[in-house]
From TrEMBL:
GO cellular component terms, semicolon-separated: plasma membrane
Keyword NADP: no
Biased segments, Basic and acidic residues type: 115-131
Name used for this protein in its record: Zinc-ribbon domain-containing protein
Signal peptide: none
Domain TcaA second: from-to ranges: 175-259
Keywords carried by this UniProt record: Membrane, Transmembrane, Transmembrane helix
Pfam family, one: TcaA_3rd_4th
Record region (Disordered): 53-142, 431-453
PANTHER family attached to this UniProt entry: MEMBRANE-ASSOCIATED PROTEIN TCAA (PTHR40038:SF1)
Higher taxonomy: Bacteria, Bacillati, Bacillota, Bacilli, Lactobacillales
Amino acid sequence: MQLNHKRYQAADDRGGSDTMFCPNCGQKVKTTDEFCGNCGYNLKEFKAQEVSESAAAQPTTPASAQSTEAPVSAQPSKAQPSSSQAQQPKSGATTANEKANVAPKTNDTQTTGPTREETVHVTRSRSEHVATGKPAGTNGSGKATPKWVWIVIALVVIVLGGGYLFGKNYYSRTAQLNRAVTAVKNGDKGVAGYFSSTDPNLKLSDAKIKPLTKHFKSKPAALASFKRQLNNGQTNDERFTYQLSGKHWLLFDKYTIHVKPIYPTATTNRDGAKITLDGKQVATSNSTTYSKQLGPLVPGDYKIASNGTVNGSKMTNSGTYFIDKAGQSVDLALRTISFTVQTSPKTAVYVNDKKVGTADSTGDLSVSELPWSGNMEVTGKYGSGASTVTSKAYKVTTDNENVTLEFDGVMSMDDAKSYMDEYWTAISNVTSSGDESDATDDNSKDLSEYFTDGTENPQYKEMIRMSKSYHSADDIYGVSYDCDVRSVVPTGKDKFTITYYLTYTFELEDTNHIQEFSYDAHMQKTGNDDYKVVKVTGGQKIRDTHED
């Protein structure tokens, strides 16, 4: 006998409960709700669709077949024969009852919809969480996923996302360059990590980078230029290149400052002279025309010296050199040198930061028999009140050289003499004519242009008053002015004082009255090569004579 088995949809395990779970978000809702209060899902439409699918899933077998079919659970509890046994007849022929229980195989017995197995599969795949009473987000056992799991997942996502955004900013091209330049500026530990090189002889370390950091320490403008050039890709001398050199954490671009090292040459003229680099001996000469290649060196400031004996006396040629060019040579010859300094009176004179004397009242100083250095720089320091002004550096290259030390924003002696000559020419023209409109120098520069605040300057007004009074004096037939500049000394940034002697010659009826006074013109630089008188002080009489 052949048995027909049917699969039925599982009973709703919600029983008589008036609640269910939203199929969209898993929120517990009432069965009468039309929309989910948590996510807005259309519950009414979903339940209508579920009913429609359940109806379509019912078999359409004929009534005769349905009458012979029964759920397995309706069979008696006694042991049933196996399906194979039920299909085997007890004798060689099929009994009438068996024939009656076998449904004929005709087209009428075919279902018009999907099979029960297909319907169950579709129903479960689309609404299993409702049919079984399980909310969305449940695990395999039907239990809801703990809230802390979702919290942990959210935190992980936030941390990973935030970490990526942070890393993208932290490892940006600009941010990496900023950190590298800051490390160079401060000489930070680990600064070598920002550099790279393809020269196999150059082993980068903080000590190797130190000469570069030392060079920029007192030169902020040079460091700023260095940074700008690197931001454009490469420095002007092509010694440093800012380039991509790998990855950080396999995600972010890594940039380094690629350095091309230098191999300078040191030479000396003494046999047996010891050559040192930053205090470490690197060679000993064996001839009077000795040369030694140094390096590889990262561009920067290095103290290079030679020590030897000249005519029985120990001598050292030492200097700090900025090594930045290919094929650069450092002359470490051992000999002496002499020179004369001309600067502002009472200026302290230094050679390579070592004081060698002070200029006299005329601004002169003679320096004799100094050990020569290939990088011998002379500077002057002038104390003005509580501040000290330092001159421009002058590099001595030959013996018996005349060294003129000048200060930024301060006139040279020659310029000061020319300036004061023209200044008094303009005053003399007013004295001759008595007309202020004639107050111009030989270059047609108006006298007012020599003063800060122009015609409003008190000193300008005094010069015009004095000139007109001399012109109108009945006993004065003529006046001449002779200015002798004695010194120019700095008093601050772009400020200085010109000390001069002024000789007045008054032409009287029977004699010439000659008077000489000392004055200080307090000056200020107001532009490129533009200097103005702020005020004039002094007026000490030096001589007062009459000549026939």
